[in-house]
Design a protein that fits this description.
322 residues; 7-stranded parallel beta sheet; 10 helices; 15 strands; 31% helix; 24% strand; binds flavin-adenine dinucleotide
Amino acid sequence: MGNVLVFAEHQKGKIPKATFCAVTAGKELAKKSSGECYAAMLGSGVEELAKEVAGCGVSKVFLVDSPELEHHLADVYTTALAQIVRANGIDTVVGAATAAGKDLLPRLAARLDAALATDVIGINDDGTFSRPMYAGNVTATVELIGTPRVISVRTTAFDAAAKEGGGAVEKVSVDLTAGLKCMKFERFDETKSDRPALTEASVVVSGGRALKSAENFKNVLEPLVDDLGAAMGATRAAVDAGYVPNDLQVGQTGKVVAPQLYMAFGISGAIQHLAGMKDSKVIVAVNKDPEAPIFQVADYGLVGDLFKIIPELREELKKLRS
Ligand code: FAD
């Protein structure tokens, strides 16, 4: 018997797809360990969101609704979650390996003196977990000793849980004093964009060092991104060169994406970049070097100069639309 608690992340009054992917992982783990799958929703004015998660086949959502939880502060959230875990006989805490999850879950593991596995991509029948190592070149099988234990799951490895009714929402009160002593919310500087979020978009158009400047990202790549209603991504080389902000980085040390369509322009295909996009359903690569490693993972490859090909592609798209 092993009960599971899924951390239900929310952003700007919405539940991101990542949370529903974590719910799928939580339900799978609970089923394999003959336990219940619960969720925890922390925030301020989030009861409706808690009901939404409860409708995804979890047994119950523990809701802590307090003005002090309005902003995601890892220490405050850790304080609340640790109490829910201890009070409800939780065996495993599951969260998505998002920025918030990466901030919170290691602290929670430390607070609970629990073993932690990050970026889990598989839940095995024998109670072990699979997770990538060395930029995805190796898949490790890990066993977490003792309980409670904490895992973060790679969202591209689990489908989003569908609505299927069910669970209740139970309001719980916790003592946040310890967490509030450590952290205070100052401000949140948000990158504003009308484009879809990189990790949620069905089409991602990425550029590499070959774009050569921030102006070329803006004037050459961005119009294609917008024609396709896509999210924009980039390599670390492009980020390090200052062409685009680092929240657009795809790869081992950036975001992991698996859209329906991933288009790579002027990207060599280093393993660290592939680690973040190789699970995309269809990969299109444009590179002037026919030997570029990106072609080994591409479904469609075009050898040529991106500065010539992108305008031609936009022209063809325009024709298709009219
Ligand atoms: P390059 O490797 O320089 O490739 C540029 C490509 O553009 C070449 O293939 C070239 O043929 C092509 N090209 C040039 N001009 C044109 C043109 N006009 N038209 C078409 N093609 C053209 N990288 C990531 O992306 N994400 C990560 O998360 C990441 N994490 C890392 C973590 C570690 C620990 C390390 C060591 C590295 C990491 N890297 C990461 C860096 C990675 O190793 C590569 O250096 C990087 O991905 C290369 O970026 P790039 O493809 O843009 O540049």
